[in-house]
Every structure is written in structure tokens, then in C-alpha cells.
């Protein structure tokens, strides 16, 4: 029924994915009993410990459930697949930009709905959150947490918990990118000014109760966020190349053959993303600005 897992890396992930595929294609329907631990270990060509790890993953996702003295079964909601993105899949610049495309659609809807539904109290929270960004930057901080709060208040004002939770899920994978661009903004007055003006225009539209303008401002802001991210990556690549060239020159001819740049702009995002991978599941943001 199952093919043996050949890769030594991520064995339990591979087993969990194979079982998920069997569930999604109907070979293991809701309520079906899974083969025993020993049988799965033999079919996959792995140890029983790896099978237990895979089962633990599926149980944590609510896909399967244990029944005392009976075995493991596909849960009644097993076919409702949990939304999941492998952090390793978003380590490149192109992947982050694709996530920003998705975020742009969601944030635009949130802004439009906020312009329609926001209360006076919610508008006050949005305005206070915007002021807090400037306050944090003035203190020398990067303002990331203040940005998170700003976008979260807009999503909350939209009055749709599913939209809010989807944004929270998505934005946890953009943490690396926002820190890169925030650092770049700290050194680029034009970037910082642009972000503030975009935020202000968005708030103005929500205050005016203009859903069309609010949607447009949110789309423009996220489009420009992608542009700034690309510029940040290009600047990082250029700086790294200049540093490597200088190092080779200082080291002399004998060392040139082995000199290597530390990273490119794309790798900078990937490196930062990997360093934050352990924190992904605990991320609790509903909006991260770039």
C-alpha cells in the first residue's frame, strides 16, 4: 500500500505526508482504521519510532485519533485538511513575494470591510496604532511590533474572524522579510516616509468610510511593500558582493580562489527564515508590514 521511504532526512514528515495523501484521495476515508504500527513500519521500511512520530504529527493536526485498546483511526473530520506551509518553502525571495500577493488580496478585503463596519472605538484604536509606529521608530526601535498591532486592528475592525485568522496564519511566514525591510527602512528615509504616507492614506480612507479607496490604498501599500522588499534584497546582494571583492583584494592572489560571498539578498531572507523556523508555530501576528 505504501512505498518505502528512502530519504534519511525528515522520515517522519515523509510518512505523515504519505498517510495524508491516502486520506485525501479516499483510500483511507473518515472513520477508517489505520494499519498497525508494526505493519506501517514494515511497509515504509522504517522503524516503529518513526511511525510514532508521524502519528503524533497527524494527531496534533486532528487528522487521526487514537481509540483506547483499538488502534488509530481517521478522525470524522480527517478529510478537512489543515492549512500548512513548510517554512522551508518560503526561504526564497520569490516565495516571499508570492506570499505577499496572497496577503495583498486579504489585506485589501480587510481594509474595505473595516471602512464599512468599523465603529468609532475601532477607528480610535487604528489611529492610536498608527501613532504608535511613529513613536516606536522615534525611540530607535524597528517598529515591527507596532506594525503588527496596526494591521491587526484593521483586520479586527473588518469583523470577520476567518479573515483575521487567515492573516495571522499567513503573516507568521513573513517575519524574516519584514525584519530585513525594516532594517533597510531605518537606513533609508525615503522608505520610512513612503510607508508612513501609505499607512496614513489607508487610515484616512477607513475614517472617511470609503471602502473603494480603502481597498485601493491597501493594495497599493502591499504592492509597494513587495517593491521595497526586492530593493532591500538587491541592496543586500550588492553590499555582500562589494565586501567579498574587498576581502579578496586584501587577502591577495593566493586566497582569491577560495574566497566566497557570505550570502546574496535571496539567501539573506532564507538564512533569516531558517533561524526563525523554530518560532513559526508560536507566531501570533495578524499583520506584518514591509
From TrEMBL:
* Stretches the record annotates as Disordered: 233-290
Where in the sequence does UniProt note compositional bias of the Polar residues kind? 233-243, 255-272, 281-290
Q: Which residues form a coiled coil?
A: 109-136
Which keywords describe this protein according to UniProt?
Coiled coil, DNA-binding, Transcription, Transcription regulation
- What domain of life does the native source organism fall in? Bacteria
| InterPro entries linked | GntR_C (IPR011711), TF_FadR/GntR_C (IPR008920), Tscrpt_reg_HTH_GntR (IPR000524), WH-like_DNA-bd_sf (IPR036388), WH_DNA-bd_sf (IPR036390)
User: Which residue range or ranges hold the HTH gntR-type domain?
Assistant: 9-77
Q: Which residues form the signal peptide?
A: none
What GO annotations for molecular function exist for this entry?
DNA binding; DNA-binding transcription factor activity
Gene3D superfamilies in the record, alphabetically? Answer: GntR ligand-binding domain-like, Winged helix-like DNA-binding domain superfamily/Winged helix DNA-binding domain
* Protein's UniProt name: HTH gntR-type domain-containing protein
| Phylogenetic lineage | Bacteria, Pseudomonadati, Pseudomonadota, Betaproteobacteria, Burkholderiales
Amino acid at each position: 500500500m505504501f512505498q518505502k521511504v528512502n530519504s534519511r532526512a525528515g522520515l517522519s514528515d515523509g510518512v505523515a505526508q504519505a498517510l495524508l495523501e491516502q486520506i485525501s484521495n479516499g483510500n483511507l476515508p473518515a472513520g477508517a482504521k489505520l494499519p498497525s504500527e508494526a505493519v506501517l513500519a514494515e511497509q515504509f521500511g522504517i522503524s516503529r519510532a518513526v511511525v510514532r512520530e508521524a502519528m503524533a504529527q497527524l494527531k496534533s493536526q486532528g487528522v487521526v485519533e487514537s481509540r483506547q485498546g483499538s488502534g488509530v483511526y481517521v478522525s470524522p473530520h480527517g478529510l478537512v485538511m489543515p492549512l500548512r506551509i513548510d517554512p522551508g518553502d518560503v526561504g526564497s525571495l520569490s516565495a516571499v513575494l508570492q506570499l505577499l500577493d496572497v496577503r495583498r488580496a486579504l489585506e485589501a478585503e480587510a481594509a474595505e470591510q473595516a471602512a464599512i463596519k468599523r465603529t468609532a472605538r475601532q477607528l480610535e484604536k487604528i489611529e492610536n496604532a498608527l501613532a504608535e509606529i511613529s513613536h516606536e521608530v522615534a525611540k530607535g526601535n524597528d517598529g515591527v511590533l507596532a506594525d503588527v498591532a496596526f494591521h491587526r486592528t484593521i483586520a479586527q475592525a473588518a469583523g470577520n474572524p476567518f479573515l483575521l485568522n487567515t492573516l495571522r496564519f499567513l503573516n507568521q511566514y513573513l517575519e524574516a522579510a519584514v525584519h530585513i525591510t525594516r532594517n533597510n527602512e531605518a537606513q533609508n528615509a525615503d522608505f520610512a516616509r513612503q510607508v508612513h504616507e501609505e499607512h496614513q492614506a489607508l487610515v484616512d480612507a477607513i475614517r472617511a468610510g470609503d471602502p473603494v479607496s480603502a481597498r485601493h490604498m491597501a493594495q497599493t501599500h502591499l504592492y509597494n511593500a513587495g517593491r521595497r522588499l526586492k530593493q532591500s534584497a538587491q541592496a543586500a546582494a550588492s553590499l555582500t558582493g562589494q565586501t567579498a571583492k574587498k576581502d579578496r583584494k586584501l587577502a591577495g592572489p593566493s586566497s582569491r580562489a577560495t574566497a566566497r560571498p557570505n550570502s546574496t539578498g535571496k539567501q539573506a531572507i532564507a538564512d533569516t527564515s531558517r533561524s526563525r523556523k523554530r518560532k513559526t508555530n508560536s507566531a501570533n501576528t495578524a499583520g506584518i508590514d514591509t
